[in-house]
Write a structure and sequence with these properties.
The structure is a single chain. Helix 1 (about 5-20) runs parallel beside helix 2 (about 25-45), helix 1 (about 5-20) runs antiparallel to helix 4 and helix 3 packs across helix 4 (about 95-125). The longest helix has about 35 residues, at about 95-125. Strands 1-2 form a two-stranded antiparallel sheet. It has one domain. The protein starts with a helix and ends in a 12-residue tail after the last helix. It has helices at about 5-20, 25-45, 60-70, 95-125, and strands at about 50-55, 85-90. Helices cover about 60% and strands about 10% of the residues. The chain is mainly alpha-helical.
Length: about 140
């Protein structure tokens, strides 16, 4: 079972991986990783022009995660009138999305999804009913 502390550490390590970090100091490493990623974004922007990209995400919590990650890197996500809540628009350099933003988001979403799944199972098992097997349906 993953604890919230372990999840937070895993999320920091994922960010450090995409920043190319080699140190493991808690807050300092996270800030340094963010700064390295911002530097890569500026580097990509100096050689490529941003384009408008559309992202369709699975659910509300993935949208919130993606928005937070975009804002962390100074990007300005938006939605056009009439677009679904799971759609996010972004004017960004494609190389940044392909090399850093989307792979990092995917790994963060997977780690959070695993954590949420474990927490949901545990809470249902402990507070509602012991058998949480969704595959077994009674007639």
């Amino acid at each position: 079972m993953t604890t919230e502390k372990e999840l937070r550490e895993k999320l920091r390590k994922i960010e450090a991986l995409f920043a190319g970090a080699s140190t493991h100091g808690e807050r300092a490493a996270a800030m340094a990783a963010r700064d390295r990623i911002l530097e890569k974004l500026r580097e990509f922007e100096s050689t490529e022009r941003p384009i408008e990209m559309r992202f369709t995400l699975a659910d509300g919590w993935q949208v919130r995660l993606f928005l937070a990650l975009c804002r962390r890197y100074g990007l300005k996500p938006y939605r056009r009138h009439g677009q679904r809540r799971t759609t996010v628009m972004l004017s960004v350099v494609p190389r940044f999305v392909n090399d850093i933003l989307w792979p990092e988001f995917s790994q963060l979403a997977e780690a959070l999804g695993d954590y949420l799944e474990e927490a949901t199972e545990r809470i249902i098992r402990e507070e509602v009913f012991r058998n949480t097997d969704a595959d077994v349906m009674a007639d």
